[in-house]
Amino acid sequence: MIPHMGPFRGLLQTSLLGPMSGVPTTIPFYPRKPNVNPTRRRLLIALAGAATAGLSASWASRMKTYAGSVSDHFDGTHFFDPDGASPKKLAEVLRWQFGGGRERHKWPEWVPSPYSDTPPARVEGSKVRFSFVGHASWLIQTGGLNVLVDPVWSERASPFSFAGPKRHNDPGIAFDALPKIDVVLVSHGHYDHLDVATLSNLAAKFSPRVITPLGNDTVMRAADSAIRAEAFDWQDRVDLGNGIAVTLVPTRHWSARGLFDRNKTLWASFVLETPAGKIYIVCDSGYGTGVHFRRVREMHGPLRAAILPIGAYEPRWFMKDQHMNPEDAVKALADCGAEIALAHHHGTFQLTDEAIDAPATALGIALDQAGVPRDRFLALKPGQVMEI
Q1: Which is nearest to 173 in space by CA: 129, 139, 224?
Q2: Which CATH class is domain 128-387?
Q3: Please, which residues bridge with residue 344 across strands?
């Protein structure tokens, strides 16, 4: 665990927490940055980057957490993956962030996508329309329902409004261009996936159902009681209406939003049942032995499509247990057996050390080496659309 922050404590409390409140507040989507001492900024950026890359952030001792019965993946206090790996320890965090020999590629300040989507109000019938918003955010339209996945419209994926991973391109759909949103799927609590500012804005405009793994509903409602969060366990199937349902399935990852809440909320992937077939949505995952992907194939196959992460993977010694690289993602596609795949979790927020274009480039190479046609596993840019 990262120790008490000492002189930084006031900054932490007044960033996304009200003074001594312990509850995140809604922030503007594109806040201005105040002047911050460079040394202090470097530490804050490191901590905020760590939070979104799957490491500890900076607070949560006051946060309410999940309380439920012991199970094969909950010990009464913490969730765990029987087939997973524990989060990295502080010494490893510091080795990555401040150790010698680090090779961190600098991303361009701004890399706009040439695409921008204005979605239709609804998509009826057996078609599924995928619109890539950016990073791990998608709009999926099918069967008359509009479903958002891990929506993040904020400028930063961070507990801070002035430091931490910042956007390098706009969302592929302007927030005001969204159709009425019926359902939101939120996979886990890391800041690049659970963005309370966006969820609060969605609640105010559309009041959608928010389906999330156990414990994350508490985080959301603490931020804004208007967020209609519903929490479920692994293997729970949720009817969304119009013949569409979603099942939460285990994934090789973990969770935290602060120092003292590691694995106190659950994480999951999703299997979305649509008129066109089942869509496997993996928002964050390491590969491990591939058992999670093979089990989804056994329990939920056949899969019409999969959304698989390909970015935030360097350095491998640190990231391999929680984030797949493109080679892993190609193996995951083979394991789960989906007909086609869409790549995400790259190109918007720099969470780790690889170059901005490295995941997409490496995906093509990995597909060629595996003998998989490149058009079976596509890496879209924000604003691009695919239909099946």
Answers
A1: 139
A2: alpha beta
A3: 309
Cα–Cα distance for residue pair 48/55, rounded to 1 Å: 9
Give the residue-averaged pLDDT of 364-375: 98
Question: How distant, in Å, are the alpha carbons of 11, 31, 281, 299 from that of 171?
Answer: 28, 16, 19, 34
Tokens of residue 253, six digits: 């990852």
Pair type for strands 269-274 and 277-281: antiparallel
Q: What is the pTM of this model?
A: 0.86
**To 5 degrees, how large is the angle CA 142–CA 246–CA 159?**
95
Q: Which residues of 51-85 are buried (b: 16+ CB within 10 A; e: fewer)?
A: bbbbbbbbbbeebeebeeeeeebbeeebbebeebe
Q: Is 332 helix (H, G, I), strand (E, B) or coil?
A: helix
Tens-place pLDDT, residues 94-103:
899 888 888 9
- The residue whose two tokens read 């003998």 is 371
Q: What is the pLDDT of residue 5?
A: 30
List the one residue out of 65, 69, 16, 19 whose CA is nearest residue 44. Answer: 16
The C-alpha atoms of residue 386 and residue 380 are separated, in whole angstroms, by 9
Helix (H) or strand (E) holding 249: strand 244-249
Structure-block tokens of residue 89 = 């320890």
